[in-house]
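INFO batch 0412 | record 1 of 1 | parsing
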Amino acid sequence: MNHRAAWSGACIVLFSSVSAAIAPAQTFTTLVSFNGTDGFQPFYISLVQGADGNFYGTTYAGGANADGTVFKMTPAGSLTTIHSFAGADGIYPYAGLLLATDGNLYGTTNEGGANGYGTIFKTSPAGTLTTLHSFDGTDGSYPIGGLVQGSGGSFYGTANTGGANGYGTVFRMAPGGTLSTLHSFDLSDGAYPWSGLVEAANGIFYGTTNGIGSSSYGTTFAIAADGTLTTLHNFDLTDGAYPEGSLFQGSNGAFYGTTFDGGSIGYGTIFRMTPKGALTSVHSFALSDGEYPVAPVIQATDGNFYGTTRGGGAGGDGTIFKITPEGALTTLHGFEGPDGNAPTGGLVQGTDGNLYGTTSSGGADNAGTVFKLSVGLGPFVKTVPTSGKVGETVRILGTDLTGPVSVTFAGTPAEIAFASSSEIVTAVPPGAATGKVQVSAAGRTLVSNVAFRVTP
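INFO prediction complete | emitting tokens
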């Protein structure tokens, strides 16, 4: 059963449309309803928490020029448009933003720029935007996925089309904006990558293509920093079809992802894959528990994975779900239009423990929403980056980091260069080993959501 036609093409049209348990005692709050002037239709964005404790994201359209925006939102839901795109600096940002190690936010626009094929940009938290690269078709065109910063400091991503063969590319960009094409897809190894990349603990980047491959339903791949690409899996419809969300490497080392279509019923899947490419479908959606998952999943501090489906569920307008690493799925929330419709973007867990996300339509003005879901998880800290050498600078993000503050890396104390209520700047201390980062502040001890990997 192939539902791909409902979501194909560069211009996305939204629709609303085994059983899973319904979880009690979830607290859902609509924080923002976009109205067009402050943005319209946040699409594939996962919000990112900044060093100031606020959340940042993009809207596909709307704003002062109707070409899309970059916005800032407080955890309480106060929204500020910090940039409105205007053609020359890009239009239609599909993806969300990346908080880089320099404290700036980096992203892509799907079109516009000097050549009309999209851009890569950086912006300060205050909204000072710089266009770093304008695609020209030969080096890729129409990037849909977001960026990831590699352990070497460069940025990596994908372009949906263009390149040597016209079927999309994988690229690397130096912090100053110099771009190198690492790979051009040629149909046999996939085509039309929608998602961004993830750098695994082994230093290899992993991603997906949305089409072709040996069975025409998309692929997963691994690519080294030098551009050597290996196709790991070709989807065959029974195990899923058309993966659009980025992969996520869980704490067990396996990758988790979603497919828009396919599976045992035809409404999409959640899959698990080893770094070598052995893939297992862990859940097939059945309409009642959601349909058409296009966003990635994340692993929260309780060890479970959380994500969204674009449609289905009790209200027909999409769901938020929790799934264990083994595949037991629970529906946490069903959208019904006024509280949002079509959550095509993924979730992010704020350092306050809550889950935050967006819907691409619905809300008071049918222009999309930002929401918060509280599921009883406590506060924690996260590091930017999540790996580094001894002596390298690390930003630690948190909530209410007040009073006497101390930091340890797997038990080794670190010196603090700067501290605020939402950010601590430190460096990897001599003698540190790979492990969790702990912060003592405000009379409590907060632990990082993932282990910090100390590299040679």
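INFO post-check: The chain has no helices and 39 strands.
INFO record closed
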